[in-house]
Inverse folding.
């Protein structure tokens, strides 16, 4: 360094400066132009005795070096007198180094009150007293540098130093607050944790180590922290033997328990891994940052719940499962619910015989079966159909069931069932949970809806709503309009269970006994099928196709062999209220029950596949157009297959089609069908495929959004890039060819997007006005933003007193961020984070990448 | 008691671009004959041969070695991606060290195609599927060459952590070209300025064209032997292998979202650690290094992985010139993979060749003055990393 850092004219107090560290600090300041008050009581390291010799010797040494110094022999507890010496001798005070200290080591067990008090007085109160006396002088003149001395014993603890550790960390707390209170007055306060060979460490360290740890290695840090050029304040440093480092607090990401939800030690224990995991740690630097997660959690109120029912999770959850059924399943079900007891009854036969002359019809109550079986399959694997509902089937009783068919249920096919949480009522200590299941067919049209309401034993008690009470579908007082009596078979449950509910409760006598039943009981849904049939028989001429919906409450169990008596009241042309009793025990087993009927047999709205394709053609290009265009592109380009050497399989949905893009050799070829050994298979919807091929959808987004599934050699999919060189005219021609629809030509020119960057930067300006600290990592910087699609240029200037957000460019920008308009908006909405965008190449940084960390200022802006 | 392993003969071809090279067995013959002549022994003294290449059908190794003689010795074909050459050397060293053989040939060659590396067998699970998944999860897939996406992505991750300037990466290429300009065996002999490097087409941010090693054809060979063999053939003061270690992927390679780990940073760290421990020689004692600079980003990461500079210190290390003549170490005096070229199977043996020349003091205008200790680092994704410490007393 050419110019020495000097302290010309500065007045320094160093406490405990007669020996060791303090002496070295004093000599450093003295040798570099400062006027030094050398304070030392001249006592022993244990706090006994008093002498002026030590301080005087250091004063003499400073003078010999050509410096100015006076001695002071007061105890640091009389801090005011030490400061007075400075004021009397030199007229002011600029720098205070609180260094004085003593030791009274003893194990906590043996520690006396005197040991404790003495240490607190000398270290903590002493640091307070000297600093407190100097503080008004420093504040008034707008300049001050304070160094506190703590110790590793305080930061980490050390055997036998409980009193000392407490005092030393108390000093750090004092320093932290002084740094905040002094900041605006240019009074800085820092803390050092030195390790040096001094009188205090002689007692705890071996002599060889003491020799290596020279006090001279600590003073340079003190010197720099006290220099007017040093802007550091509130810092904590470890220093010794030439090593200097800064410490900060680290905090795990922690876990936030949602407010409004009771949690106890069990929940804390369950989250302990997360609470103590430093993997994604953060470093809060002030009270505000410390509070941030707490405040964030205060804004996220829970919907409630407990260990069985997590309403926050469940209310957002959605699970879709697939099923397929055949005519075999439909007929077996019908037999299971007692249909075709008279095999010569043609109407009954049409429920079980696929070649029946009256047609083959599905009982509408079957509509619950594929969904229910999918749910049972999940339960077998220990999975809940809806995340957030964390109870086993052992707690569940089927309480109510609602089934609605949109049109006659298909006799076979593949279906998709989407489970959604509907409601959970807290009937403490139990709970009543309802799930809604929407069933769609392969065209995506809804064909049935079920609501499964279960009574969950012991899962209530979170303080939630009790829900509606009272009875619905209560039968009128008059005599029923129809009554059907039917005796179930003794082996009814054994037959019904083959339709999917394998619970041993319905088959195994020993198992049933364990559950408190004399013998295996009939499935609730088996009774359900029976009573549904009764209504169909009484009011639909035994034709199930006019049946719209059925709602029942399961009141009691039925035993196989018992007689069901269903009494029905016609409330209107399309509404039947009913109730079912077991004749032998005269118990109501089904109540609050009703069936709705259609006036006419409903027809499917969805068109068969071929028509769906035609409809899509009318609206725009479909995959067939794209593949036709690709074919032309391959023929025109020559040799693309040779270059690509990959076979792509496209499996498209809605409508379904399969295409092979065989780029193994030659020019490559396109054909419909399924390849034997594709290198890579891409599954996506027809619409998304077209969007991707026309540049409207980003393949990466489709992939990560779960809309495109890629199997096989994932990396090979990038070879599809050759399609980007395809002439868009080829696609326009192909798309307009079959339907000759000129409107479709417009697809190439996407509508211009509206820029969001303006709103984002306006919101940023607003945030910076209201919260000066928001700039954080960007403080003092001038950075520019080059926004694309649509283009815009912005400058964020944080170099001056007040932040400036302006449109345009700046020569002063040290770093330029390149980002797309939509990614900027995602950053501002919190949907994307800067690091992820950067890693994905969507945030370009020209300059210091670490400034991009400061882009957190954009988060949750809009 | 393990035998000391001496490297008594080395040789290599001038590296050439794809399409401009001789057939693979011809390149192998040239490198092999040069190594035999360098050792001063006839081929019939060689007891085993380990022959590395990545692209070629089975037993190309035999076809290549048969050019040197038909003595019926065991020939083992070696394939370990970009670290194939040093894996052959690792096997040869093991054979001599264990006493299984007295004199062994390690040979490597590659005849490459134009363009970026890719898979040849697309009807099965690609070997780097798990690596690719880490990358896909972290940054998606682009049209850039896959290896550039992986190492470039690691570069992005490093920049995010340390704020490294883009030019810092370019600076490595500038140095590589400067070194290669003094190496007659290198593919590229013309220097490039930092401006030219930065202005070249972007391959995958932060990597530009001139920061990616080119596909190359070439061969390299080394003959290793025991002390007893050297003594018998009156070979004195040979360069010897002070320590050597090979590592493969650790669990950290597949940890979520770290491309630095995925491209084998921990393989490098652990292999280097083993070598430093076995040899008792630390990074501070090293004079010259040949390391795996397939992309500038990997050279930068490798400085830290090998302990040539502290973690986060690579930028300063580079701008201080501590990676070239006059600095703390000379890294890649040959020009490295970036400028000398990277024929996958040959690279490990070409690195060995350069370092043996350096330790003998016969590296001409590239000579690192007074070089006594040399370190070799050769890394392949998939993965394997071989680190070798050479000494000459």
């Amino acid at each position: 360094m050419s110019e020495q850092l000097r302290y010309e004219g500065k007045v320094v107090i160093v406490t405990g400066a007669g020996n060791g560290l303090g002496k070295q600090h004093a000599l450093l300041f003295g040798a570099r132009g400062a006027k030094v008050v050398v304070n030392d009581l001249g006592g022993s390291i244990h706090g006994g005795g008093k002498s002026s010799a030590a301080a005087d010797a250091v004063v003499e040494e400073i003078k010999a070096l050509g410096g100015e110094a006076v001695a002071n022999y007061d105890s640091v507890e009389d801090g005011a007198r030490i400061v007075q010496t400075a004021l009397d001798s030199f007229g002011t005070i600029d720098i205070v180094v609180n260094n004085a200290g003593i030791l009274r080591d003893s194990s906590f067990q043996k520690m006396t009150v005197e040991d404790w008090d003495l240490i607190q007085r000398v270290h903590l109160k002493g640091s307070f007293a000297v600093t407190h006396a100097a503080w008004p002088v420093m504040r008034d003149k707008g300049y001050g540098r304070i160094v506190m001395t703590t110790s590793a014993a305080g930061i980490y603890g050390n055997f036998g130093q409980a009193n000392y550790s407490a005092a030393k960390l108390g000093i750090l707390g004092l320093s932290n607050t002084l740094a905040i209170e002094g900041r605006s007055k240019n009074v800085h306060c820092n803390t050092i944790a030195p390790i040096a060979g001094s009188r205090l460490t002689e007692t705890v360290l071996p002599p060889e180590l003491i020799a290596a740890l020279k006090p001279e290695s600590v003073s340079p840090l003190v010197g720099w922290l006290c220099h007017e050029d040093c802007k550091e304040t509130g810092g904590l440093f470890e220093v010794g033997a030439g090593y200097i480092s800064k410490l900060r607090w680290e905090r795990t990401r922690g876990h936030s328990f949602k407010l409004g939800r009771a949690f106890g030690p069990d929940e804390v224990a369950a989250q302990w891994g997360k609470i103590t995991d430093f993997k994604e740690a953060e470093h809060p630097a002030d009270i505000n940052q410390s509070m941030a997660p707490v405040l964030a959690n205060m804004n996220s109120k829970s919907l409630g719940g407990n260990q069985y029912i997590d309403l926050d999770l469940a209310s957002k959850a959605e699970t879709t499962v697939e099923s397929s059924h055949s005519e075999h399943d439909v007929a077996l079900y019908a037999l299971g619910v007692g249909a075709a007891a008279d095999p010569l009854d043609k109407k009954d036969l049409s429920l079980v015989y696929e070649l029946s002359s009256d047609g083959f019809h599905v009982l509408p109550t079957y509509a619950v079966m594929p969904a229910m079986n999918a749910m049972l399959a999940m339960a077998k694997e220990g999975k809940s159909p809806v995340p957030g509902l964390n109870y086993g089937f052992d707690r569940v009783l089927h309480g109510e069931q609602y089934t609605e068919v949109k049109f006659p249920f298909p006799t076979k096919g593949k279906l998709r069932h989407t489970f959604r949480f509907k409601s959970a009522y807290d009937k403490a200590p139990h709970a009543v949970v309802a799930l809604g299941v929407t069933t769609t067919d392969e065209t995506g049209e809804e064909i049935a809806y079920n609501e499964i309401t279960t009574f969950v034993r012991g899962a209530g008690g979170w303080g939630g709503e009790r829900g509606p009470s009272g009875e619905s579908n209560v039968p009128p007082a008059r005599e029923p309009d129809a009554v059907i009596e039917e005796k179930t078979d003794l082996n009814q449950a054994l037959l019904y269970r083959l339709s999917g509910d394998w619970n041993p409760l319905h088959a195994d006598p020993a198992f049933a006994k364990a559950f408190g039943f004399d013998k295996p009981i009939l499935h609730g849904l088996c009774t359900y099928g029976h009573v549904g049939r009764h209504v169909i028989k009484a009011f639909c001429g035994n034709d199930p196709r006019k049946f719209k919906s059925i709602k029942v409450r399961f009141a009691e169990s039925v035993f196989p062999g018992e007689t069901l008596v269903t009494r029905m009241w016609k409330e209107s042309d399309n509404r039947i209220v009913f109730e079912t009793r077991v004749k032998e025990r005269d118990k109501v087993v089904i109540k609050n029950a009703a069936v709705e009927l259609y006036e006419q047999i409903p027809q499917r709205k969805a068109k068969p596949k071929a028509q769906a394709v035609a409809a899509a053609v009318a609206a725009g290009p479909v995959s067939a157009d794209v593949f036709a265009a690709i074919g032309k592109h391959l023929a025109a380009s020559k040799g693309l297959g040779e270059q690509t050497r990959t076979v792509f399989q496209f499996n498209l949905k809605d409508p379904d089609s399969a295409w092979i893009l065989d780029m193994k050799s030659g020019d490559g070829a396109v054909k419909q069908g399924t390849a034997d050994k594709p290198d890579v298979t891409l599954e996506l919807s027809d619409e998304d495929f077209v969007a991707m091929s026309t540049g409207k959808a980003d393949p990466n987004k489709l992939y990560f959004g779960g809309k495109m599934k890629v199997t096989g050699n994932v990396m090979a999919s990038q070879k599809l890039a050759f399609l980007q060189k395809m002439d868009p005219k080829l696609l326009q021609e192909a798309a307009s060819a079959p339907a000759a629809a000129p409107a479709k030509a417009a697809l190439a020119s996407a509508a211009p997007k509206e820029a969001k960057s303006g709103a984002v930067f306006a919101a940023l300006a607003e945030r910076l006005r209201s919260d000066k600290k928001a700039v954080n990592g960007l403080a003092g910087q001038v950075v520019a933003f080059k926004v694309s699609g649509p283009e815009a240029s912005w400058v964020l200037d944080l170099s001056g007193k007040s932040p400036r957000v302006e449109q345009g460019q700046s020569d002063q920008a040290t770093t330029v961020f390149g980002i797309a308009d939509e990614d900027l908006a995602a950053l501002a909405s919190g949907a994307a984070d800067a690091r992820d965008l950067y890693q994905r190449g969507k945030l370009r940084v020209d300059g210091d990448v670490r400034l991009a960390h400061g882009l957190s200022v954009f988060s949750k802006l809009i | 008691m393990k035998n000391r392993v001496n490297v008594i003969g080395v040789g290599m071809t001038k590296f050439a671009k794809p399409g401009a090279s001789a057939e693979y067995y011809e390149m192998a013959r040239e490198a092999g004959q040069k190594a035999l002549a360098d050792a001063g022994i006839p081929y019939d003294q060689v007891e085993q041969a380990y022959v590395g290449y990545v692209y070629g059908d089975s037993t190309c190794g035999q076809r290549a070695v048969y050019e040197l003689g038909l003595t019926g010795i065991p020939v083992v074909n070696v394939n370990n991606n970009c670290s194939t050459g040093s894996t052959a050397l690792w096997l040869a060293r093991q054979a001599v060290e264990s006493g299984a053989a007295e004199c062994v040939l390690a040979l490597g060659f590659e005849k490459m195609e134009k363009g970026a590396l890719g898979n040849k067998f697309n009807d099965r699970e690609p070997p780097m599927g798990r690596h690719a998944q880490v990358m896909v999860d972290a940054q998606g897939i682009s049209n850039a060459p896959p290896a550039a996406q992986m190492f470039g992505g690691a570069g992005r991750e490093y920049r995010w952590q340390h704020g490294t300037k883009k030019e810092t990466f370019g600076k490595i290429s500038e140095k590589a070209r400067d070194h290669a300009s003094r190496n007659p065996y290198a593919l590229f002999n013309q220097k490039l300025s930092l401006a030219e490097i930065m202005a070249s087409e972007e391959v995958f941010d932060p990597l530009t064209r001139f920061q990616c090693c080119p596909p190359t054809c070439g061969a390299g060979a080394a003959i290793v032997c025991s002390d007893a063999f050297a003594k018998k053939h009156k070979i004195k003061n040979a360069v010897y292998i002070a320590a050597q270690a090979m590592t493969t992927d650790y669990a950290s390679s597949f940890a979520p979202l770290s491309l630095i780990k995925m491209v084998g940073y921990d393989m490098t760290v652990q292999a280097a650690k083993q070598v430093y421990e076995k040899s008792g020689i630390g990074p501070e004692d090293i004079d010259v290094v040949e390391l795996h600079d397939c992309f500038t980003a990997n050279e930068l990461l490798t400085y830290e992985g090998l302990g040539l500079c502290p973690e986060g210190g690579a930028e300063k290390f580079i701008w201080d010139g501590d990676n070239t003549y006059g600095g703390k170490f000379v890294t890649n005096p040959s020009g490295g993979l970036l400028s000398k070229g990277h024929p996958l199977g040959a690279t490990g043996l070409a690195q060995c060749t350069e370092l043996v020349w350096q330790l003998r003091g016969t590296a001409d205008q590239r000579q690192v003055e007074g070089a006594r200790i040399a370190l070799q680092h050769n890394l392949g994704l998939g993965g394997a990393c071989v680190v070798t410490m050479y000494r000459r007393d």
